[in-house]
Design a protein that fits this description.
The complex is a heterodimer of chains A (about 110) and B (about 110). In chain A, about 0% of the residues lie in helices and about 60% in strands. Chain A is an all-beta fold and about 110 residues long. In chain A, a hairpin with a 3-residue loop joins β4 and β5. The radius of gyration of chain A is 13 Å and the shape is globular. In chain B, strands 2, 4, 5, 6, 9, 10 and 11 form a seven-stranded mixed sheet that branches. In chain B, strands 1-3-8-7 form a four-stranded antiparallel sheet, with no helix packed on it. In chain B, a hairpin with a 2-residue loop joins β5 and β6. The chains are: A mainly beta (about 110), B mainly beta (about 110). The interface between A and B is medium-sized, with 23 and 26 residues.
């Protein structure tokens, strides 16, 4: 079963714009992780946010977590064509057992 | 540091045949995972090993799928007999340990069952 659900399913923007993706989940979690997948580099970990954290930054990435609403968002600032990929949220209820959503397909046009 | 290695990269078999996939995790990683990713969906965990013990195999179709991690390093995933709906990419991942650690994924094996 899919715990996390990303929204939107697809997003198309121009280079330099910001991209925001959302993830909702159903049960309590230990942490939430975001991954990126493209044909060139496969599935790559982007950022991990623990259940007691509200916001985390990594380079051009900003992730927020609202455990009361069971939701998270991933913001990519100043998007580049190389950011074109599918983005997945994955929830960990403990013991590193991840449940992935269906993903958001991001297309960044030059 | 070498990444997670998987082989083969591609495999085409007929239904009812058997197939095996191999994974070599990052050196020193205690936890190893096998995922199935069907086109258009996110990866689904099939089985998780901690060293050579199984932590979670609740979504592994045990009537046809089997996996082992001998000596707590390499792992193999086998399907016997294969069905059409097994067509997917099979991803292997590893992490340093259980807990809040990122997972490192291999390139995957794309299986087509005809």
């Amino acid at each position: 079963s899919q715990q996390g659900e990303e929204d939107p399913q697809a997003l198309s923007i121009q280079e330099g714009e910001n991209a925001t993706m959302n993830c909702s989940y159903k049960t309590s979690i230990n942490n939430l992780q975001w991954y990126r997948q493209n044909s060139g580099r496969g599935l790559v970990h982007l950022i991990l946010i623990r259940s007691n954290e509200r916001e985390k930054h990594s380079g051009r990435l900003r992730v927020t977590l609202d455990t009361s609403k069971k939701s998270s968002s991933l913001l990519i600032t100043a998007s580049r064509a190389a950011d074109t990929a599918s983005y997945f949220c994955a929830t960990d209820k403990g013991y590193s057992t991840l449940t992935f959503g269906k993903g958001t397909m991001l297309l960044v046009s030059p | 540091e070498a990444g997670v290695a998987q082989s083969p990269r591609y495999k085409i078999i007929e239904k009812r045949q058997s197939v095996a996939f191999w994974c070599n995790p990052i050196s020193g990683h205690a936890t190893l995972y096998w995922y199935q990713q069907i086109l258009g969906q996110g990866p689904k965990l099939l089985i998780q090993f901690q060293n050579n013990g199984v932590v979670d195999d609740s979504q592994l179709p045990k009537d046809r799928f089997s996996a082992e991690r001998l000596k707590g390093v390499d792992s193999t995933l086998k399907i016997q007999p294969a069905k059409l709906e097994d067509s997917a990419v099979y991803l292997c991942a590893s992490s340093l340990d259980q807990g809040s650690y990122e997972q490192y994924f291999g390139p995957g094996t794309r299986l087509t069952v005809t």
